[in-house]
Amino acid sequence: MPRQILQLKQSQQLTLTPQLQQAITLLNMNQLDLALEVRQMLSQNFMLSSESEFDSETTTEHNDSEEYELDYDDSELWADCNHDWPTSSNNNSEYTAPETYTANSVELHTFIAEQILLMPLDETTMSAALALAYLLDERGYLTLDEASAKSDYNIDKNTYQAAVTALQQCQPSGIGARDLEEALNLQIAALPADTNYLSTLKRIMRRHFAFLSKDSERVQKQLDLCDEEFQGALALLRSLHPYPADNYEAPIREYIEPEVIVHERGGISYIARFDTHLPALSINSAYAAVQPNNEQEKTLLRAQLSEAKWFIGALEKREDTIRRVASIIVATQQDFFQQGDIAMRPLTRAQVAEMLDVHESTVARAVNGKYLQCKRGVYELREFFSHAVSSSEDGEEASVKAIKAIISGLIESENKKKPLSDQKICDMLAEEGHQLARRTVAKYRESLGIPAAPGRRER
Question: pLDDT at residue 388 above 80?
Fold first, then answer.
């Protein structure tokens, strides 16, 4: 029988008090959540008062006078496929109210149109792409062919192809496909390169998709695939959505109120104002001056006063932390405010934390959901962080975002009849002093939602 021995062990352990936990929570909150927290604290602590009480129907306005400008039919084939894919919601036997369907359709079309408006397209292509976005059917398929586009909407062949390419770059993945096979191939192209069985599935889709429902064993034999590999590829195929519109979830829209306002003078960007959009809190002097007659009332007043003082101090500490983090970001990213993403410098949360002598998690909380407004637009503070990926000839490092911006610029100015291959882009980057592997260039291009050279070629 093993002996039981009693031992004493000394160790250090950090215990988070309720107040410290709440301070961490306050730092992590965005403007909307913080406003709700302040409103709740005002309602439950009579020692707190504000210069301007606010409710859900009113918001604090800026007092500054300056205005800011933010710069074939596949249904048979599909039915015969014995693969347990999800069916379209529009084929359900349950009745769907027309107004519900219409509202959902409008939201999807609007969502796609918003994405197209952000693309670097010429005016003709953008107009055509927007028109096609509103011609998608309930499955998310584009049923308007090239001939109809010409006769009904006066969209020529080249413009039609360019508009379809733009449309198919939108989310949800697979949108704008002309048939089932194209919808699946678009989703496959958007999968991460390291997805299990992806290469096998691409081999199947290249020539054998139409035969899967008729003789899947023959397909497996022709491609010389083992059972594990073939079944894995089929499982991946089943995970895709035959009707892209069914994969659409309306994005949650939140009202953004920037806390950091950046101005520019003499080519230098600086923090001109820090807005919390909250009323100034103070201690209610009338209640603080009360002299209670019994110990119970005295204890209550002390507790309320202590909580009120701590809450005001916690808000001030939150503002100071965000201001200090934002100051380092603005000082480091001066070139970005003048030139955009192409001039983004490498900067990590760990570097900022070291400069401020705080924990990295504090920096992460300080930038999460906090926004900066400058002449280039509104940005979440965490967008200014980017790792270094290469070194130029003079020893200066470049950030991931800057490299992506260069790649995007090269592709935008390429000859559309002879688009740049990933290797060519790699060579052009090397000429500018950025040494990247071809697979890295391909990964960055895919993250930008840009198809490979064959998909960009205009015929």
Answer: no
